[in-house]
Amino acid sequence: MSVALFALGGTISVAGRARGERLTGAEIIAAVPGLDRLGPALDVRDVHAVPSGSLTFAQVLDVVDEASRAVEAGAVGVVVTQGTDTLEETAFLADLVWRHEAPFVLTGAMRQPAMAGADGPANVLAAVSVAASGAARGLGALVAFNDELHAARWVRKSHSTSTAAFVSAGAGPVGHVVEGRVRVLAAPPRRAPLPGAPDRARLAAARVGLHCVSLDDDGGLLEDVADTHTGLVVAGFGAGHVPGPLAPVLGALARRIPVVLTSRTGSGPVLRHTYRAPGSETDLQERGLINGGLLDPYKARVLLRLLLANGAGRDEVTAAFAAHG
Ligand code: GLU
After folding, report:
1. 216-268, pLDDT tens digit by residue?
2. What's the structural domain count of the chain?
């Protein structure tokens, strides 16, 4: 039995104070007490050694492709170690295209290996337990962190330094790892993966902006966005609202590119038919904005970019957000 482990850099790999010094995947796992007693052999691959804010969609999709090949060659599961800053986005990206029963588990660390109370080793131990566990099969991409297990579609980094930074607001963790035992308590229904591996040239051409609305926002930043981008996600107030004067600006954009409406609050849905004022969810949908449902702005941007990279038109984008949102 083997688990394929892909090392992508991040805090878990920071070796020392010198700029650029990183631990390899083999060095990361060598520091994990009890890993050798867990069972699966680890097939470790060093892919990138970067802060996670420097990862690209293409790099993550390449890792998913390589992970697919590892599973087809017999690995029971996959672990990815990376930086925590974009973990919530890379996890959802992988989840949208992962078509295996084998668990795809992402983890990292909030404290560097040389710091007191470094959390990387415990997180790797939990992640490997999950990747090898029958209990996690069929759940898609999961984040194992702080002995909790989070579904890719819900998980958020909610604190800049805490070792308990990862939460699933409004849903809760799907399970936990205690005494090495993986227990799944509740898992969201698995959506069908998106069709086809996105063509990398189309992926590069699919440029999706994200605009977070704020008090008295005049939309000045959005003026030329349809000339430079092929899609836009709006993080609106509350249940999907924007200042009244911004509504026609967004409506004009929605006639040119898909514009997806989400909430900047961090949890809860965008409403569909409760408010009617200019800039309300009803007004914005009548102007052509697509309802992002329960997806937060970052995850909505991941989905929209993948859809556009797959050549989806407006109707397919709307249908996909109805299914995934
Ligand atoms: N927290 C950063 C990340 O998400 C770590 C930065 C680094 O690895 O240098 O990757």
Report:
1. 999 999 989 999 999 999 999 999 999 999 999 999 999 999 999 999 999 99
2. 2
* Residue 120 near ligand 1, beta carbon < 6 Å: no
> Rounded CA gap, 127 and 145, in Å?
8
Atom of ligand 1 nearest to the CA of 85: 4
Domain that residue 273 falls in: 200-324
Residue 309 lies in a domain: yes
Looking at the fold, whether 102 and 14 belong to one and the same domain comes out as yes
Burial 235-266 (b: 16+ CB within 10 A, else e): bbbebbbbbeebbebbbebbeebbbbbbbbbe
- pTM passes above 0.85: yes
Residue 52, ligand 1, Cβ within 6 A: yes
Helix (H) or strand (E) holding 259: strand 259-263
Nearest to 24 by CA among 32, 16, 15: 15
Claim to verify: residue 36 and residue 61 sit in the same structural domain? yes
Cα 280 to middle of ligand 1, angstroms: 38
Domain membership flag for residue 60: yes
Residue nearest to atom 7 of ligand 1 (CA): 51
Mutation choice for ligand 1 from 85, 90, 159, 161, CB with most ligand atoms inside 8 A: 85
Q: Is the CB of 296 under 6 A from ligand 1?
A: no
CATH of the domain at 51: 3.40.50.1170
CA–CA separation, 96 and 99 (whole Å):
8
User: Could you tell me whether strands 148-151 and 175-178 are parallel, antiparallel, or unpaired per DSSP bridges?
Assistant: antiparallel
